Amino acid sequence: MHSIKLLDCTLRDGGYINEWRFGYENIRDIVRSLVKAGTDIVEVGFLRNVDYDPDCTRWNTVAELKKILPADRKNVMFSGMALHNFYDIDKLEPWDGTGIDLIRVTFHDYDIEEGLAFCKKAQDKGYKISCNPINIMGYSDAGVLWLVEQVNKIHPYAFSIVDTFGSMRQQDLDRIVSLVDNNLAKDITLGLHLHENMALSSSLAQSFVNKHLNRDVIVDASLLGMGRTPGNLCIELIADYLNLNFGKQYDIDCMLDAIQDQIMPIREKEPWGYSPPYFLSARYNLHRNYAEHLLGKGDLSNRDINHILSRIAPEKKTAFDAAYADELYAQYKGSALDDAADRAKLKELLAGRKILALAPGQTLDTHRQAIEAYIAENSPVIISANFVPEHYKADFAFFTNGKRFEKLEACPCAVIATSNLQGEADYRLDYNSLAGAFDKGANSLIMLLHLLAELGVDEAAIAGADGYGPAGDNYCDPRMKNHTLRGADYNHAMAEAIRAQELRVRFVTPSYYEKE
């Protein structure tokens, strides 16, 4: 019977979560646990042109990575991954049986020849080679056949079907496996690398091994699915499936111990796993950075992200283009609107008045006495940003965020809404004229301050603009949490943006923005 091998890529693919900084002892412990578990192939990281760092799983030479390999290798094969343009092949030592045995080489559809040439040079130095073309889903059937023909010429140890963007469905797996299996030389092992964008990795991996191909196969996975969000196939799940159905004897306990001791502490700080925006990037077979970029805006619903991603041109899908994504974002958020009449009305209403802008931070509750004292003393016009306050009587509610505006029902005050929002509003303002006030994405508080300055207001007080603390409990109402990770860098950028507005600002409640 042809073999099924399990390859763990935690120390390589998982490194996208923590910049490959697992720590020297943790690296050694993870390797030992995987070896004890009987994992067939353990990938210990990237070969890269970097300075040696013992705590990091990006290696400059094979001699460096040997330090984390166990004395008793048992029957485990060790591997590393390289991109031809990120690693100088001349630095690669000849294989001597004491370091890695397998080098997996990745390349794009536009540099196949360079990638295969790198494979051949590594092969000539005695290493087993796996060809891992990036984004097999981006190839036409003819493209897959041509690629397989080129791979057969150098005859590597393995060829891997890599679903880079996590967009593979069952019919795609069936089609691509059929194309490759019927044309790849029969003594070349066929691998499969899946991502969890659509929560299909486990079912697809099971389907793959159930095909009982007339060749050896490799399935990639990682501990707890650790890998760049949303993650990979969980090795403990596929190992258990192989134990139950294929007579394998992987020690699941060793895998679970490694998860508890080395992986869970990482996940608590930098979580990964399925999320709708990454499903959407897979749905359109896009580079995942598009989803990440739009998530970072902080003011888009999943529906918004779906609509923006659907507009990405075919030629822009594979390589992420931030400027192009920003252009689509701006187009989506609203076309130009002549808001001169509503601006004039607001200017008249605010003329000569003190202004208190309310943001939805926790200090609205914890510092109510200070806020109420300011209101009693100054009788300001109160304008809330993207919410309606529960304990303060606002005069205006200023909305720029579709997620918040869609939930607005009966509003006790006048509503100012930007042109990207659908629904009733007392005043409608052009979105694009305000959105450019902050280079980290649209922020309602910055947009409000920018508007006030343009309306001739020379001073405004702010309450509830707390900033983002390490605990993550940043809102007076936890339902407002947008799940976008923000911290000191964002606080600093917000502080700079507040100071850049052409009006004086007074903080009525404590704020990270004031400290920066």
TrEMBL record:
Pyruvate carboxyltransferase domain residues: 118-242
Pfam name, any one: HMGL-like
SUPFAM superfamilies: Aldolase
Protein name: Aldolase catalytic domain-containing protein
